[in-house]
Amino acid sequence: MSLVFAVYVVAPLVTIVIGGVLAAWVYTHHRSVRGSDWFLLHLVAGIGWMGAFLAHVVLQDAELQILAAILSSKLSAWAFIANIVFASVYSESDFHRHPLAKVALGGIALSTLIPTWIAPFQSIFYREFVLVSRPFHHVVAEKTPFYELVGLVLAILATYGLLQLVRYMLTTPRRSRAQLTLFVLGTLSVMFAIVAEDGIWFLVEGLSTTEFGVLPYVVCVSLALFRFRLFDVLPVARNAVVEALRDPVFVLDGERRLVDFNDAALTILPGAGDRIGEAFADVHPTLAAGIDFGPEAADAPARLTLDVGGDTRHYSVNVSRVDDDGGDVDWYSILLRDVTDLERSRWQLAKQNERLEQVASTISHDLRNPINVADGYAEFLDEQLAGDSLSGDELDAARENLTKTRESHERMGEIIEDVLTLARGGKTVGETEPVSLSTTAWEAWENVETGDAKLSLTGERTVEVDRSKLLSVFENLFRNSVEHGSTGSRTQSDDSVEHGSTDPRSQTREDGGEHGPSGVTVTVEAIDGGFAVADDGPGIPAVHCERIFEDGYTTGEDGTGLGLSIVRTMAESHGWTVELDGDADGARFVFSTADSPSSSSVTRSKPPANAR
């Protein structure tokens, strides 16, 4: 037996064995994978092709050799057809469904059913078969143009399928590129063998060399399947599932390097495409530091707050561990679910619950005291009026008790107004509208007894706000400044820190003594990221600064302690924050919003004609 004959026998045998193992493995383990049926058909047809080719080489009877050669051609056509459809389905390009592709593939499939081993039909594909005895017995077919046309169409479709696989190789995660690279190299080996058959070189004159390209193809596919698991990470699965997710997804390898991500991840990491292969801790330190890669990570999603495009977003982070190709190293998929709206709703619900607690506390404690006082004076009045006659002094005392009873009732009315404002202010803001800061400030200024006080506006801006709540904020702060910020007639500046009434025209001095007209100047200032309300009075004593926003905190005998709590509630209902500026000379409250101020400035003691 010559060396050439041995090569022509051993190569098909090895190909048949490897192909059979692959076919059995795909059939038993991956029948459910998209495209696996076509790949299985491709392998089975290829095994039959190699078997027929081997029979052509080893048989000695010329008629049997011709029959084997014809069968080899038919099975090779089916191997190519199945390979083309597999490439189309696997890459999800589905080009085999195009009308032209359907006609071409269907026509070739039907042509293989023609009984070309019978003389009348044989001439469609073959002119004649020539018997050759060197270096071993075989037959050489002289093909017709129709045969060459069929081969050309198959070559074109196979090349297009290869291009689709290459495209997916370039657009899929790094982990699957090795798989597809091997698959493409195997396909190229078959194409190179076909080109060699058409005139570059022959091992045996006139005998096909295409079959020798099948062996490296099967070897490459074996590596792709067993070493890199071609059917485990489908590009189509990745594109259909991962890219369809609206939530950011990152994929890390066993060394926690970034290897893949979806388009949504670019919102968090715009330059992710340039950071492939880098340690994730270097790519996004904040995110990496907040992730638990331990075995219990999947059971307890982490909560992270990230700055995304200048906006604060809250995420629930889910980490999944995936066995690597070797099974001894874990890969990680990181899914970030945006829960910003949920966190805001939770925060608003917590604030609402706080408001309800405040209402209950105020009603059960603060409102009870003036009621008891009123009851006491009412009893005195009843006793005094029960007598037959009242002296002048007794009548004066009765009138005084009646006055105090009325004052207590007025006090209860003010507390009720404060409680209602506090409760309503704790509700989630529904509809907002663009509102002029200066116009709203002037309107609130008119609703308060300001005496000789002046209002100064520094800057103009528009804020997105619930207008009634902003009015309440300004009214409470203006009233505090006017009643407690006087530089001339204030008598108890160190004994009272806030005013609680929301009655626009109330003249009751709750939190201090009789202050009289105030000459204080109140300033509403548009600042970077918000606005501020300040006065030039003595300010708030340092001992009270840390507690002024506490519910019910007041140093006045008649104060409700709700005024600044209402201000805080109104601000927080919009997602703002309010703080006392401890460095200011007077009382200055700073509100942080998301708007930007302008630069104009004006000071007036009366509102402009068009302020309303």
From TrEMBL:
It comes from Haloarcula nitratireducens. Signal peptide: none annotated. It catalyses: ATP + protein L-histidine = ADP + protein N-phospho-L-histidine. It holds the Pfam family HisKA. Keywords: Kinase, Membrane, Phosphoprotein, Transferase, Transmembrane, Transmembrane helix, Two-component regulatory system. Residues 483-521, 591-612 are annotated as: Disordered. Its EC number is 2.7.13.3. It is an enzyme of class 2 (transferase). This is histidine kinase. The chain crosses the membrane at residues 6-27, 39-59, 65-91, 103-126, 146-170, 182-204, 210-228. Residues 362-597 form the Histidine kinase domain. The keyword Nuclease does not apply. SMART domains: HATPase_c, HisKA.
